[in-house]
Write a structure and sequence with these properties.
CATH class of one domain: Alpha Beta
Strand order of the largest sheet: 6-5-14-15-16-13-17-20
CATH topology of one domain: FAD/NAD(P)-binding domain
Number of strands: 20
CATH architecture of one domain: 3-Layer(bba) Sandwich
Distance between the termini: 30 Å
Strand content: 25-35%
Length: 406
């Protein structure tokens, strides 16, 4: 048995997945040490959509109400045809009222969720968060895990009983465990422009909108930001031949926005970002005493808002099982079930659906486009079909499927 200082779970990466893993374990009375390479939690405007299945998990953790208070409740989402300007389909989450305690989505930026969870962790003296501590490697010694960490005082080693790698798509934990990251990278990048302009002034848009266009699709979302009136985010694909400098130039940004949302004058763009987009899944989510969760385990395009949600689902599923193992209520082989449940549903649902979401928006063949849009219209018009569709988009079907796997 390890001594008191090392008899704990180590977690690499203090994003929402790492923080939620730490909170769930702390609530089960398990000591944790969380390593974060940055010197604080950053207010970076990344993922924001929190689906019904995820909100149920956050409620169980005691943080759903606070996330809702600093976010925006979104009761529907829309598909649009950009060339015609027509509303193709509007899906109302109220159809899920008999399926979930949360028949809506909450637009809560992930940095807000991270700060809420970090504050909750302050209630647990055995929950340790070490900033400016970058995990650079690990070794599974069979009965414990030794983690190499760069600290402000120089290189150090920390020992724990288990290690959770939630350190992102370039995960050092995954690489040091020699776990391959299978999949592909899209040739185009995704670009995000954020503006305070209120798009609802001129169009009956929801807080979540998907615009199909054979030349250049777009997603449009509203987030609460620092409070009313909030901010709107637009997401576009780049063209393969465009350089980053061209994409991020003021002229290019204004032209992209004006194509979809013409208005008098220029847009006030308060944030811009460009990123490479992948569809990849780790070969395994568990190797000995090392587990992967979140972007360390799987990455996907952002259409449909499933990346952060899937990571939170990893964290909850894993820590449920790890808690049982820790307390002697289950054999360590239960951790293999985490891999089977989460990796299988990640491939079957998250990867498949996000790839399909992108294909639906970017379809160029007129016949395929017409078929896609008509299918959306017919689905939205039929309550039974719409409900099944939203059980998928709300990730409820995926969670139910994951717990059926043995």
């Amino acid at each position: 048995m390890a001594n008191a200082n090392t008899d704990r779970v180590l977690i690499a990466g203090a994003g929402p997945v790492g923080l939620i893993s730490a909170l769930k374990l702390s609530q089960e009375g398990i000591p944790v040490t969380l390593f974060e390479a940055g010197d604080r939690l950053y207010d970076d405007p990344r993922a924001a959509t929190t689906h019904p299945a995820t909100l149920e998990m956050l409620e169980d953790l005691g943080v759903a109400k606070e996330a809702e208070e600093v976010g925006l409740v979104c009761k529907d989402f829309c598909f649009w045809d950009r060339p015609t300007g027509d509303l193709v389909a509007r899906f109302d989450h109220s159809l899920l009222a008999d399926e979930t305690r949360f028949p809506y989505v909450v637009q809560c930026e992930q940095f807000k969720l991270s700060k809420i969870v970090r504050k909750k962790l302050g209630d647990f003296p055995d929950a340790e968060i070490l900033f400016s501590h970058e995990v650079t490697g690990q070794e599974d010694k069979g009965d414990e895990v030794v983690v190499d960490v760069t600290t402000p005082e120089g290189p150090k080693q920390f020992t724990g009983r288990y290690l959770i790698g939630s350190d992102g798509g370039r995960s050092v934990v995954r690489k040091s465990a020699d776990i391959s990251f299978e999949g592909f990278t899209y040739p185009e990048r995704f670009i995000v422009f954020t503006t305070p302009y209120n798009f609802q002034q001129n169009k009956d848009v929801s807080y979540r909108n998907y615009f199909a266009d054979p030349d250049e699709w777009c997603n449009l979302f509203k987030v609460a930001a620092d409070g009313p009136p909030g901010l709107w985010r637009t997401v576009f694909p780049t063209r393969e031949e465009e350089t980053d400098e061209e994409v991020m130039s003021d002229d290019s940004i204004q032209a992209r926005l004006a194509k979809f949302f013409p208005k008098d004058g220029e847009y006030d763009v308060v944030h811009r970002n460009i990123y490479v987009t992948h569809q990849r899944v780790a070969q395994t989510f568990r190797k000995g005493r090392v587990m992967l969760a979140g972007d360390s385990a799987h990455v996907n395009n952002s259409i449909g808002g499933m990346g952060l949600n899937g990571g939170i689902h990893d964290a909850v599923n894993l820590t449920e099982k790890l808690s049982q193992v820790w307390k002697g209520e289950a054999e360590e082989s239960l951790l293999d079930l985490y891999d089977r449940q989460r990796r299988t549903t990640c491939v079957e649902f998250v990867q498949a659906q996000t790839i399909q979401n992108k294909k639906r928006l970017e379809a160029k063949d007129p016949e395929s486009r017409a078929k896609n849009l008509q299918e959306l219209r017919e689905t939205a018009a039929d309550p039974a079909r719409a409900k099944q569709f939203m059980l998928g988009t709300g990730m409820i079907s995926m969670i139910r499927r994951s717990y059926e796997i043995e």
